[in-house]
Design a protein that fits this description.
It is a single chain. By secondary structure, the protein is an alpha+beta fold. Helices cover 32% and strands 19% of the residues. The chain has 7 helices and 10 strands. It has helices at 6-9, 54-66, 153-177, 180-189, 192-211, 220-228, 249-256, and strands at residues 34-40, 43-49, 72-78, 82-85, 107-108, 122-125, 138-139, 143-146, 241-247, 271-278. The strands form 2 sheets. The protein has an 8-stranded antiparallel beta barrel with strand order 1-2-9-6-8-4-3-10. A two-stranded antiparallel sheet has the order 5-7. α3 packs across α5. The longest helix is centred in the middle third of the chain and has 25 residues, at 153-177. The relative contact order is 0.27.
């Protein structure tokens, strides 16, 4: 495990980020799943909502019927990653308005399902970061559609290792937070030896705890999708995927190509004119 150095970095420990296994992208059957058409200023996008994520499905349907998404902007667009929308404040935003913090007054509990992952075209819920949202609850309204990129199998293996290292760091940081008073006291006293000794102890404890958990591995379905169609595998297990694009992926690709400013907002507004539930 990479040294985290309590002495120099741990003091820093203590928005709506988009930064979440699903069927292969070629699987476009709709069955009894709800379809929603997003009429945008660049064309129409149709998504299907998964029945296996009922809270997110029902909420998206509710907001679409209420007109919550009508006239909202795709306020965050990152090429080869995703396009994000659903901020109610974007309806009346000026060119200089900071967007991404708007909500509808509630969050949704995470609905992680191993079948659904961040392949290209996945529809997922945005959320606040782990620091203020350890349960990974979803925004009540903001969502994103994955564009992503393709990865080699070697890159997938490397990403598995990175994700497992990140889990280990998270366990370490959680343990360290329980010793903050002790750490402050040793820092104040200049007890470098004591700080490093505590760090070694906590690293050992974190490793022992992590060893009891099964290591993360991408499924064959994920590897197949990410190496052929592409996506954003680093989000898997962190953000709820609750649907996918079934028509209009070309429109999504056009949106991701638009010119954006430093905050990733399109310089020319890309608007959801209307969200409609399809029979």
């Amino acid at each position: 495990m990479k040294k985290l150095s309590i002495l120099f970095t741990l003091m820093a420990c203590c928005l709506m980020a988009c930064t979440g296994g699903q069927k292969k992208t070629t699987n476009m059957e709709t069955g009894n799943e709800t379809l929603v058409r997003l009429e945008t200023t660049m064309g129409n996008i149709t998504v299907k909502l998964y029945n296996e994520t009922p809270k997110h499905r029902d909420n998206f349907i509710k907001l679409a019927k209420e007109g919550t998404y009508d006239s909202t902007l795709f306020h965050r667009v990152i090429k080869n990653f995703m396009i994000q929308a659903g901020d109610p404040q974007s309806k009346t935003a000026t060119d200089t308005t900071t967007l991404g913090n708007g909500d509808v007054g509630y969050t949704l509990p995470a609905e992680f399902n191993p079948k659904f992952f961040h392949k290209k075209g996945a529809l997922a819920a945005a959320r606040l970061g782990d620091e203020v949202n350890p349960n990974k609850e979803s925004s009540g309204c903001q969502f994103y559609i994955v564009t992503g990129r393709k990865f080699s199998e070697a890159q997938m293996i490397s990403m598995e290792n990175q994700l497992n290292d990140a889990r280990l760091e998270a366990v370490f940081n959680e343990l360290a937070r329980k010793h903050m008073k002790e750490i402050y006291k040793m820092r104040k006293a200049g007890d470098t030896e004591g700080l490093y000794a505590l760090q070694d102890t906590l690293e050992a404890q974190a490793q022992a705890m992590a060893d009891k958990e099964e290591k993360f591995h991408f499924t064959p379905e994920q590897i197949q999708a990410y190496t052929t169609v592409g996506g954003a595998p680093h989000l898997d297990g962190s953000y709820t995927v609750f649907g996918e694009v079934v028509e209009g992926m070309d429109v999504v690709d056009k949106i991701q190509q638009v010119k954006t400013d430093r905050s990733d907002r399109p310089e020319e507004d890309v608007k959801i004119i209307k969200a409609t539930i399809l029979d």
